Amino acid sequence: MKEQSDKQPSGRVKHPRTVKSYVLRSGRMTFGQEKAFTDLWSVYGIEGGLKGDGTILDFEQLFARQAPVILEVGFGMGDSLIEIASSHPENNYIGIEVHRPGVGRLLGNIGERALTNLRVMQFDAVEVLKTQIPDNSLSAVYLFFPDPWHKRRHHKRRIVQHDFIQLLRKKLLPHGQFHMATDWQHYAQQMLKTMIAAPGFTNCAAEGEYMPRPDYRPVTKFERRGERLGHGVWDILFEKKAD
Ligand SMILES: C[S@@+](CC[C@H](N)C(=O)[O-])C[C@H]1O[C@@H](n2cnc3c(N)ncnc32)[C@H](O)[C@@H]1O
């Protein structure tokens, strides 16, 4: 039998292309977002990527205190995260987003409110989770309105997949929560189905059910508009089982 090889005819080793859950948009930065970047990145920003010994984040050092750490994946313009972090000074928050204007906007808002419990990363959240977040360290992960990738051929780009969930499981503390919300029914169904099948999690709602929106998740402008148009929103909340 012929042995399988990763080598191409050229002799070069073929690296599998990883499917990304985002496309980098070339959105223009406003003057305020640029200024926030220049002035505030050094205060509230965390560098993403591999950086030798300093790669794994030390939360206690980062926030100069010990408190539950909650991470939001893909915060967009940061409107939910800024409200949540302002209303919950008892927790520490890390927001991760690849879209630079959103990062600039959130930095500006943190500066305006002088929050000390919120830090920002501009990087692929999947890579950050794999390389920079300690195991068993997060109290919760939020994933609000992730890109729905509605065409069937793009479903593989949806971030809620078996591997991503198992990565989160590794990073969450026992009883740590994974909270998703979406206004795309097909994606909501997939999220729920995938979470029910995922080992190591239990549904915080009744078995097989969605969760009513928890009070801490603010209703965004975009969501209010959807509500007026009669669109639904589904919250899905699961907890990591203690081993
Ligand atoms: C549809 S938007 C929703 C933004 C925000 N959560 C909200 O509720 O308005 C999804 C966001 O996730 C970001 N995103 C997708 N995959 C990501 C990843 N792997 N790492 C960081 N950000 C990501 C995208 O850049 C985009 O801004």
List the helices and strands and how they pair.
Elements: H1 31-44, E1 45-46, H2 59-63, E2 69-73, H3 79-87, E3 92-96, H4 100-113, E4 118-121, H5 125-131, E5 138-144, H6 162-171, E6 172-182, H7 185-197, E7 201-203, H8 221-228, E8 234-240
Parallel strand pairs: 1-4, 2-3, 2-5, 3-4, 5-6
Antiparallel strand pairs: 6-8, 7-8
Bound molecules: S-adenosylmethionine.
Residues 21-22, 73-76, 80, 96-99, 102, 124-126, 144-147, 159, 220 line the site of S-adenosylmethionine.
Written overview of the protein:
The structure is a single chain. With 243 residues, the chain is an alpha/beta fold. Strand 3, helix 4 (100-113) and strand 4 (118-121) form a beta-alpha-beta unit. The protein has a single domain (31-240), classed as Vaccinia Virus protein VP39 (Rossmann fold). The chain is globular. Mean pLDDT is 92; it is low at 1-6. It is built from 8 helices and 8 strands, in the order H-E-H-E-H-E-H-E-H-E-H-E-H-E-H-E. It has helices at 31-44, 59-63, 79-87, 100-113, 125-131, 162-171, 185-197, 221-228; strands at 45-46, 69-73, 92-96, 118-121, 138-144, 172-182, 201-203, 234-240. Bound molecules: S-adenosylmethionine. Residues 21-22, 73-76, 80, 96-99, 102, 124-126, 144-147, 159, 220 line the site of S-adenosylmethionine.
Overall structural domain count: 1
Total of DSSP H or I helical runs spanning 4+ residues: 8
- What is the highest CATH level, the class? Alpha Beta
Weakly predicted, low-confidence segments = 1-6
CATH architecture: 3-Layer(aba) Sandwich
DSSP strand count: 8
β-strand percent reads 15-25%
**Ligand catalogue:** S-adenosylmethionine
- Rough shape? globular
**Largest sheet entry:** 8 strands, mixed
Mean pLDDT: 92
Helix-strand pattern: HEHEHEHEHEHEHEHE
In helices, the fraction of residues equals 25-40%
In CATH, the topology is named: Rossmann fold
The value of Rg in angstroms is 19 Å
Q: How many angstroms does the end-to-end distance come to? A: 42 Å
CATH superfamily: Vaccinia Virus protein VP39
How does the helix and strand content classify structurally? alpha/beta
Strand line-up of the largest beta sheet = 1-4-3-2-5-6-8-7
